[in-house]
Amino acid sequence: MPTYKTAALVLRRIPLGEKDKIVTLFSRDKGKLRAVAKGARKPTSKLAGATEPLVLLRASIAEGSSLDVLSEAEVRESFPKLKADYGLILRASYACELLEKVMEERDPHPESFDLLLSTLYILQRAAQPDTALHAYELQLLAQIGYEPQLSACIRCDNPFDTDYPPVGYSPSRGGALCIPCTEFLHAEAMPCNATTILLLERLTLLTDAKSLAALELPTEALTEINRILRAHLRYRVEREIKSLGMLDAHRLGESQPEKVANVP
Ligand SMILES: [Zn+2]
């Protein structure tokens, strides 16, 4: 079997029989792929720790006729700070699942690999993890051609400026709306602030890790960004993103700590 080496992030793993695992990897060179990790369920296996989610590997992969085989894996990063914080684990798991859902197998996207990897590092030290996560969502969408249209109205194509601001968002069309078009499409338009659209644009373009880790947005803006992105994604990612439910429940607890603490 031909073998190649690649940097890869472990997105997911499922047990295969008593001893093995099937891992879903996102490799820098070959894109998303699934591989059998033989013996990886045995705690003594060299592959055991290397085949858990949120691990960066230097992987040797043997190409099989149906499934590839992960023959060797050297752990390069295991993101300890991320794994010490449940909220960050949920956000990182969502980042991985979103990537898994939008990528086809064996379709290389090295820029998306770099984006996910840098997002995992940024999450470990972000002042406001959700801001970094939304930047990731927007930049990933841009890489695969699903980014929201934010600089001109999605219906009439007139460019926005201070005298012609966006006041709505159409999730089905995938872009911001001017005042007349928001009125025209009132049944589907989500009202929003012009500032939110500007912030979405800024987050799409902001790639500097240090700035992203330091950036903090007002809670109301973050809530509106989340609402718009969620609706936008619903029209573009057909499959359910399971980790979102857990992340939402956790966010609710973060925003209302006392209320949740009082639940018997
Ligand atoms: Zn318009």
From TrEMBL:
Pfam families: RecO_C, RecO_N. The keyword DNA damage applies. GO terms for biological process: DNA recombination; double-strand break repair. InterPro entries: ARFGAP/RecO, DNA_rep/recomb_RecO_N, NA-bd_OB-fold, RecO, RecO_C. Residues 1-79 form the DNA replication/recombination mediator RecO N-terminal domain. Gene3D superfamilies: Nucleic acid-binding proteins (2.40.50.140), Recombination protein O, C-terminal domain (1.20.1440.120). Keywords: DNA damage, DNA recombination, DNA repair. Signal peptide: none annotated. GO terms for cellular component: bacterial nucleoid. It comes from the Bacteria. Transmembrane segments: none annotated. Involved in DNA repair and RecF pathway recombination. PANTHER family: DNA REPAIR PROTEIN RECO (PTHR33991:SF1). Belongs to the RecO family. This is DNA repair protein RecO. It comes from Armatimonas rosea.
